[in-house]
């Protein structure tokens, strides 16, 4: 799930408990299903897709189960091991392969030309690199004309985060994304995280791709550090879910949400 060498080590550390602590949270599940709804619209059975930062393989196994051929990549060997085990347990190993790829070294990936119908990434792996132009060029070479990039990216301003931490007097955390870069600490390892705006990501992909969709992910639903608090309050969670369904499709919400979902079509 990571590009920086330190972040790769961080996700190796948390991989064995990642599903229990993050994937299986009810609010996290809702967000993932919202992404799945977009993915099944973009990638029909028989499509060949590349996943960047596959983590423990939840999305890759889901798509493979629907007949999509997935090359699941990550910079964490432990995450790839877990993905491989999940694919075998689900009986989809014939449609899912794994590959160790570092997002920071996209210029040296050597992917086959026009090999994929599209590429996707969920839960912010693209936030582990400071510049997306090299990545865009590498993907342009590997994706067939008309193919799609679809990414869930942590945005520059999260309304939930600003209000939640601000009300608790933690103004440093409330504003940590606003400068475009912050330090994250996962598994006892610290590494830099970068927060592009939807406009910047669109511009850096523009030589090869044009934006076709933009929406919010986590507009009314909280970011991960408040997942547990909300998830335990069923009525509150249900109300926030309803608001999320109404608001998320509005492009403007991408500028207020924990993540934004962006789709770009190969020119």
Mean pLDDT: 93
Strand content: 15-25%
- The topology string of helices and strands comes to HHEHEHEEHEHHEEHEHHE
Helix fraction by DSSP (H/I, runs of at least 4): 40-55%
- What CATH calls the topology is Rossmann fold
Major sheet: arrangement of strands: 3-2-1-4-5-9-8
CATH-defined architecture: 3-Layer(aba) Sandwich
Walk me through what this model shows.
The chain has 267 residues and is α/β, with parallel strands linked by helices. The chain has a single domain, classed as 3-Layer(aba) Sandwich (Rossmann fold). The protein is 40% helix and 24% strand. The protein has helices at residues 5-23, 26-42, 58-65, 77-90, 133-142, 159-167, 171-174, 198-205, 227-231, 234-247; strands at 48-52, 69-74, 96-100, 116-121, 143-154, 181-186, 189-194, 209-217, 259-266. The strands form 2 sheets. It has a 7-stranded mixed β-sheet with strand order 3-2-1-4-5-9-8, sandwiched between helices. A two-stranded antiparallel sheet has the order 6-7. Helix 1 (5-23) packs parallel to helix 4 (77-90). The radius of gyration is 17 Å and the shape is globular. The model has no long low-confidence stretch (mean pLDDT 93).
């Amino acid at each position: 799930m990571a590009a920086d060498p330190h972040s790769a080590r961080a996700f190796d550390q948390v991989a064995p408990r990642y599903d229990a602590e993050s994937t299986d949270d009810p609010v996290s599940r809702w967000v993932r299903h919202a992404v799945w709804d977009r993915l099944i619209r973009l990638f029909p059975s028989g499509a060949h897709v590349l996943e960047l930062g596959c983590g423990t393989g939840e999305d890759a196994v889901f798509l493979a189960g629907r007949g999509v051929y997935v090359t699941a990549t990550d910079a964490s060997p432990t995450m790839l091991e877990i993905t491989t085990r999940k694919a075998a347990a689900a009986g989809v190993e014939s449609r899912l392969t794994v590959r160790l790829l570092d997002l920071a070294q996209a210029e040296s990936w050597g992917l086959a030309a026009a090999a994929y119908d599209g590429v996707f990434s969920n839960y912010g792996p693209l936030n582990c690199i400071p510049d997306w132009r090299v990545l865009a060029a590498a993907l342009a070479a590997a994706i067939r004309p008309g193919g799609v990039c679809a990414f869930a990216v942590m945005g520059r301003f999260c309304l939930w985060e600003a209000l939640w931490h601000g009300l608790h007097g933690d103004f440093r955390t409330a504003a940590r994304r606003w400068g475009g870069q912050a330090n994250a600490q996962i598994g006892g390892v610290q590494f830099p995280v970068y927060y592009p705006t939807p406009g910047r990501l669109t511009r850096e992909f523009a030589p090869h791709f044009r934006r076709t969709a933009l929406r919010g992910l986590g507009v009314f639903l909280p970011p991960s550090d408040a997942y547990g608090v909300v998830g335990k309050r069923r009525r509150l969670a249900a109300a926030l879910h309803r608001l999320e369904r109404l608001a998320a499709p509005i492009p403007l919400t991408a500028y207020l949400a924990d993540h934004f979902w962006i789709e770009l079509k190969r020119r």
